[in-house]
Amino acid sequence: MYVANAKVFIGPQTIDRTDAAAAMQALTFSRDFLASYAELIRGRAFAERVVEELQLRVTPEKLTERISANVLQDTRIIQVKVSDASRERSARIANTLTELFVEDIQADFAGGSGAVQASVIEPAIPPSKRSAPAPVRDGILGAFLGLMIGVGGALLLEQLDTRLRTREDLERALEEVPVLATVPRMSGEMARERRFAVDSDPRGLVAEAFRILRTNVQFLAVDRPIRRVLVTGALAGDGKTTVSANLAAALATAGYTTLLVETDLRRPTVHDYIAGSPSPGISDVLLGRVRLDQAIRPSGVPGLSVLTSGALPPNPSELLGSQRMVEIVEEASERFDVLVLDTPPTLPVTDSVVLAPRTDGVILVVRAGESQRDAVRAAASQFERVGVRVLGTVFNAASAEASGYGYQHYYDEAYGSEPRRASRGLRRAKESTPFETSVPPPSEWGSATPTATNGNATHPPLRVERSPSPPDA
Predict the structure, then answer these.
(1) Cβ count near 2 (within 10 Å)
(2) Can you say how many angstroms the Cα of residue 130 is from the centroid of all Cα atoms in its chain?
(3) Rounded Cα–Cα distance for residues 206 and 186 (Å)
(4) Residues 4, 90 contacting (CB under 8 angstroms)
(5) 331 within 8 A of 304, measured Cβ to Cβ
(6) How far apart are CA 20 and CA 85, in angstroms?
(7) Cis omega before residue 133 (within 30°)?
């Protein structure tokens, strides 16, 4: 687009110098009407005449949008601007418009004292430079506006999106509660078939994450042994059953007799890990249909037993809060080192809050990228209100970047499963030194003398005995 400029002077036609009052009146009259004249120039009436005279292929309404007229400050000069895609046409329109205006003014105020005169003092010439587009200016302006919109949008999304995407987000959301472990996202096959990671892929990253969780739970037993752990989430889909089952399996592989108890009497899934039916289970024991030892089943993992849900009752909360439930927990605690209780999510139902006082603490499962900050805080607050300790959180289903497992390639090469190591030419020796490990029972977790530290945690010692006369490695 090109912009042509023309200037019109408006003033008194004659001034009687002998009559000061008349001269002042003429000057004031012309000044007061300057804004009205400017409005008249860019009006539809003159636009119609210009379109007709120049035979323009544009409507008067469209032409008025391309005309501007402004009074220059402290002057009687009106500046007329006309924009057009042609530099010559913009000048012709500006000159035709100002000439028509001047003719009308001279005709309306012909002769007489105090009359107004108008004259074109600067006709328009075809502009040499275009007014738009201006790539440099528009680019700078666009970049600045884009930056402002981007920053504003990012701040707005950060305020509106309360999902916990990283471990740091979870640590900030619950500052007083430690993150016990970050569990990487499981492969589709492992998650779909409900397999114990420490048994199906013992050298994988997922299994290692649950061993870290087991170790950190052990570290929490400085003041008193933790033998009953309740695992839950704020909402459905956080992965509390996955964490319950694999934590129990990790404890069993460390030498603790462990019982995984399915106390989710609404949507139970623990029985999928043993490829069995839910019944008989804990609800049948609560109702007196079977004995506890009849309902407990093996899991396939040495040291790990499972107590499934049983028949689904109409009143789960009442059953879990009954005195009979207390007796079952006590009886199971006498037979097993550790009980891991899988419960329904905390916010939709009260089952986990009712059962929590029967345990030594709660582990809250948070799903990466899905769990909401306010929901997790609300769940933790519910346990605090009933006086139950939230032992920590588990950041579940995290990506490799979010979980800090970006070193997976190096892990696989040094510690990965045998097929992976074999593919890189790494072979284990056929004859390895046999070891016998003796792990202290949970009752001794709190009394163990710390011998090593890792970060802020203190590790209790593990007793490792080497068999006599081992062969050379």
Answers:
(1) 20
(2) 46
(3) 7
(4) yes
(5) no
(6) 49
(7) yes
| Amino acid sitting at position 355 | L
pLDDT (0 to 100) of residue 115 = 65
pLDDT at 275: 87
Beta strands in 338-439 (DSSP E): 338-342, 361-367, 390-398, 435-438
Cβ contact 161:136 at 8 Å: no
CA atoms within 13 A on the CB side of 107: 6
- Centroid of chain to Cα 222: 36
DSSP code for 460: P
Q: How far is CA 196 from CA 89, 243, 406, in A?
A: 81, 10, 23
CA distance between the termini of the chain? 85
Count of CB atoms situated within 10 Å of the CB of 20: 10
How many angstroms separate the CA atoms of 247 and 468, rounded?
Answer: 33
Return the pLDDT at 84: 94
241, 363 Cβ separation under 8 angstroms: no
pTM for the whole structure: 0.61
pLDDT along the chain (473 residues), means of 10: 93 60 57 83 93 93 94 90 94 95 82 70 92 84 93 84 92 94 86 86 93 92 84 95 96 96 95 91 95 95 96 94 95 96 96 95 95 95 95 91 51 50 40 42 47 38 38 40
- Kindly calculate the radius of gyration of the chain based on its CA atoms and give it in whole angstroms: 42
Q: What domains, with CATH codes, occur in the chain?
A: 2-122 (3.30.70.1130), 167-427 (3.40.50.300)
Residue for token pair 């499972």: 306
Contact, 280 vs 295, CB < 8 A? yes
